[in-house]
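Support request, please re-run this one:
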Amino acid sequence: MSDTGSGRVERVDFRATSDPALQDGAERDGMQLLSYGELYSLWERQHWAVQDLDFSQDRADWAGFAPEERFMRMSGLSSFFIGEQRVAAELGPIMRAAPDEQMRIFLCTQIADEARHVAFFDRFYKEVGVLEANTLEGRLEETAEHTNAAFTELFDEMLKRRVDRLAAEPEDTEMLVEAITLYHMVIEGMLALTGQHLIIDYNEKQGTLPGFVRGFTNVARDEHRHVAFGARFLRDMAASEPSYGEAIQRTLQEVGPVANDVLRPRWAERLEVADDEELPGGLSINDGRVFAARALERRLKAIGLTVAA
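Re-run finished. Output below.
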């Protein structure tokens, strides 16, 4: 599996994000990361609208899937739908705790992005006929049964605990560094972008869900821009104070095993799938973990750190 994923991420609009995992010079010192103002300008240029997507073929495709395939597909889709809702809700305190106005302006755009991602999944579910619930809240509740215990621990315990602390003490910059490490490097940079690559790649190879693929590709581009912000922020903070670099490493050591478990979907237990077993599409669960680890390693090198043992 390549470091950067399929040819999709070679597109000019993807590489314009300067996400270190997509850049050829990411493993060299002194890589140029976009400034916060440049990231904001890129957000303005990369707008897209959920209402422009056409899910008519997706509805026909979904109706033709066998029940077992629907169940397997729901695991990845549900993690994203619920995950986008969770991170959208947690960004407010992170934005308010950011120590620089340009950082806060960019994080406001990310709040808008995450809300759009929730709207994207909600419209897909509603128009394709995936779920029985007829409200956003009901669809979120219905999809929750497809996520695993590690997902709940990462989002509802590890992330929420840090964000709740920031809401009470926004001046706690070390906690902000921990929160952005977990949010931007692990949840977005490892888990989300790995899942996006695998899901989009599989659907493109199968020729299924074209409306979803178009929208999810836009979601992935947004996430690369967010990760680029996280890399810039963490590099700036680690360079300014050694304790912030220690906070990054401490957070990665704490959450790494849980993130690894998130990448084992719930259906793998039901179907008794081993981590090294080849799945439809030609990859295993462990292949996804390797992809995620390599992407994190390249981003950390751009920050000036290495993955802690």
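Residues 1-5 have pLDDT under 50 and may be disordered. Residues 235 and 303 are 4 Å apart (CA to CA).
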